[in-house]
Amino acid sequence: MSTAAVNPIANTDLKVFPLCLGGNVFGWTVDQHDAFAVLDAFAGAGGNLVDTSDVYWKFKAGNTGGESETIIGEWMRRRGCRDQMVVSTKIGALHGMTGGLTAPKIRSYAEASLKRLGVDTIDLLYAHVDDTDTPLEETLAGFDALIREGKVRYIAASRYDADRLSEAAAIAERENLSSFVATQSLYSLVERQFEASHSEVVARLGLSVMPYYALAAGFLTGKYRPGNAAASVRAFAESRPANPTLYLDEHGLTLLAVLDDVAAAHRTTVSAVSLAWLLAQSAVTAAIASARTVGQLADLLPAAELTLSAEEVQRLREAYPGSPALEQP
């Protein structure tokens, strides 16, 4: 087992490994057999949080959604390890980006996830996307009902704007409803809009942050270089952060050079350094990164025990300009 520290999720009794394993690839590019191997290696290293959703991986031919949850649930059943895991999933995007967080749908989707995961209680249930067509009062009341029934322990938000997080917190306090304890937001060395848009709000509300695209769809692993557009289902997306090759500009190459240097100094991987930089940010509780193989996972795991110096953290920050929002006065 790893000796890496575990980090508390704010306002809960949950403690999680600093690396959250991305389960989006399970049932998509990773079948059950290979997923079990990755999950075994992750748990063996001390990992206890896997990021999944009822929409993973709906978009593969023949799938309907929930395939990732089913694989994770079957793995926990066969290994008898449910009590060692923080069971977490997301709902609300299975049938589109709006209308998925009405109270009846929250109940229906959550109960379907419980069945696929093979558990009686979900430790951390996320709203996958902000449903602006449904009043936040109804959404929060729908989640709160599940908590009161013991089907969910804590709730969180994914991809919510800062003002909506603030509004949700105010409504929860006013209506005496359960409130979000964490948020999933886009954040990495090459996508730092979060610092300008969300950092003040999450600090004020005391939210834990779980960044997604923490490795910029693979760019921050270092495997995408000029002349070596590594084969990936992501490399054909039209925009960043989903297409890692779009970071291969002057700034991206400068950052890769610094990442190489820091990784060499610590005798570790570029992936681990990229994740360790993110984990050095005070708001971040665990960084989400996926692995299709045990070998890929091995490149990520050192991040949980890697401490960068303040000088290295700053050097990496200065190697890449961040986002236009950060450059505004």
TrEMBL record:
Cross-referenced InterPro entries: AKR_Detox_Biosynth, NAD(P)_OxRdtase_dom_sf, NADP_OxRdtase_dom
UniProt protein name: Alcohol dehydrogenase
Entry-linked SUPFAM superfamilies: NAD(P)-linked oxidoreductase
Gene Ontology CC annotation, any one: cytosol
Pfam families to which the protein is assigned, alphabetical: Aldo_ket_red (PF00248)
Annotated source species: Mycobacterium saskatchewanense
Gene3D superfamilies (UniProt xref): NADP-dependent oxidoreductase domain (3.20.20.100)
NADP-dependent oxidoreductase domain residues: 18-320
